[in-house]
Write a structure and sequence with these properties.
The protein contains 13 helices and 9 strands. With 357 residues, it is of the alpha+beta class. Helix 4 crosses helix 5, helix 9 packs antiparallel against helix 10 and helix 11 runs antiparallel to helix 12. The termini are far apart.
Length: 357
Amino acid sequence: MVYRKPLAHVSPGVSLAKPITDTAGNTLLPSGVVLNECLLYLLKLWDVESVTISSEVATAAPNRSSFVLSNNTFQHDLLQDIQLLETAISSDKCFSIEALAAQLRSAVTELSRQPRLGHCLAALQTLDDYTYLHSLSTALISMGIAIKIGWPAVATVELGLAAILHDMGKTQVPGAVLQKPGPLSVSEWQLMRKHPEYGCAMLSRHGNLNSAVLEAVLQHHERIDGSGYPQRLTGTAINDLARIIAIADVYDAMTSDRCYQQAKAAHVAVEEILTNEQLFDPAYGKTLISMLDIFPVGSRVLLADGAEGIVVGYHPNHPTRPQLLLIKDPQGAPLTPPVPCDLARRDDISIIKTVAN
């Protein structure tokens, strides 16, 4: 039986009997889509007052990550790679993304073979090289965080998939807005802020993506204090996947050159994330920092006052404020013998960048 029902009275789990279209006749959600809380929110956002649904109970959603892990050989290889990486990370050594990069490339190759998501990934790549590479980098960082904190492999793969797809909605944003070198206008910014909704709606048409992935795509710009968008969620009301992706997304964006900004040094990006606990989950932020070898012992750094030093020690609780031996004073004169300097105790001195030895 098919009937019309006010949206306010629709519960998750029913399927659309007729597509949802915009005023121009474009399909926003096709018939047959099973409505979950994420999609119901989108419909409210679009001012949809009623929907045509089927009275039959929709088929249960697939198991977590069933889409990615549907191929047995692929599943075995991917899980084996993650287990090897887990072993490496558990040694408490600095995190290397090489192994994860290799397995994620396999994941992307597998995804590209899927008839529906394959064209989505292709569209993302042709849209803007930065957006595509940023999505892959965000996935690498996100999965590294998950592995470091001990997430199961299946959940880690699901997180990686959500991170790869998190900016899919930007394919619906005009290139002139995406690549504008100057500040966005109010109307352009409003359009840009809709990309999580666009992405969630696009991906919801593929029934083999579960609700956790869709929620992560929708919520990756939410912030802990409720200042994010589009739902202005707070704290743990934000999907776990989205809270991790938010940190990885911002870190990679800040450390990448863009048409409107120069890349920031890794330690500057990390400090911004750490000092904004009201925006980003502090536990996941600290996990990211524990993975990164920002100032390896033996590296040479330039300080804001012009002095230079060699890193000789590392503070786990202050990873961007290492112990140094100063070898040059602010005027560039050699210091003999070198002068110890613990940046964790010197708020008046900061590192600008690493320099070649």
